[in-house]
Every structure is written in C-alpha cells, then in structure tokens.
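Moderator note: this is an archived Q&A kept for reference. The question asked for a predicted structure of one protein chain; the sequence and the answer are reproduced below.
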Amino acid sequence: MRAMDSYRHTQFGMLVVLAIVGVILFDLYLVTVIGMHPMLIGFTALMLLLLASFCSLTVSVDRDKVVARFGPGPIRRTVFVADIRDVRIVRNKWWYGWGIRLTPHGWLYNVSGLDAIEVELADGRRVRFGTDEPDQLAAAIRRTAGLR
C-alpha cells in the first residue's frame, strides 16, 4: 500500500490465466502440427497481451479517487470520491463473467469470483468492482467518501 492510499489490494485471476494459457498451449501445438503461420503467431501474441493485461485487478482508494486497474497496463477505471453517493456489497451473477462487462447494474470490472462492490454515482450511474475483499473495500470507500 502506498502512503497516500487508504486501501490497495490486488486480486489474481487464476481461472482467467489458466484459460488463456490453455489457448496459448493449443496454439503452440498447432504450430508444431501445421508449421509457423503468421496468423498463429499473431494469435499467440494477442493471447500473451491478454494474459498480461487481465491476469490481475488492483483496486486502490485514496482521498480523491477509486481506481481499478487490470494487470500492469493502462486498462483502468477511475471514480472520483466526490461523485460517490453510495456503496454496497453485491454478488454478481455467474454469467456476468470476467473482464470489463456492461451488466444490467452498470459496468463491471472483474477478474475472478462473484463478489463485488457497487458504487452508485451522483448522476445515478453504477459501477461494480469485483473483489475477494468486499467488506474491506466497501469500508475504505465509505470512510474516504464520508458515507455510513
């Protein structure tokens, strides 16, 4: 946790990683069977990029914002604390899946599991952040935003 963060946690997406690694291994098998092909090489490169981008989700809360960032890269969602009206712990349906999804409850950012927190914004929009620490994350956002 950085000094200015009131909360920071990284969740590893084991099933996402295993699924992508499985696809990569199958692709490499195809290379041994049919030989090097530009399409297979490009597909493997894409899968490696997806693996690096979606292997984890780090959620941090500081005095100004809540940031959910996938992997080490630039794929992230920022919500400003000043815009937060409410926070609640929720459980996602299994079919909402992982990654970045538009659900009936707004945008979902998730890397593993069904547990999440839902942030309601001042304009009525909602955003969900998947987490394996819903109580701690919700408490940190409530504390930072001055909510009960």
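Archived answer notes: DSSP finds three helices and nine strands in the chain.
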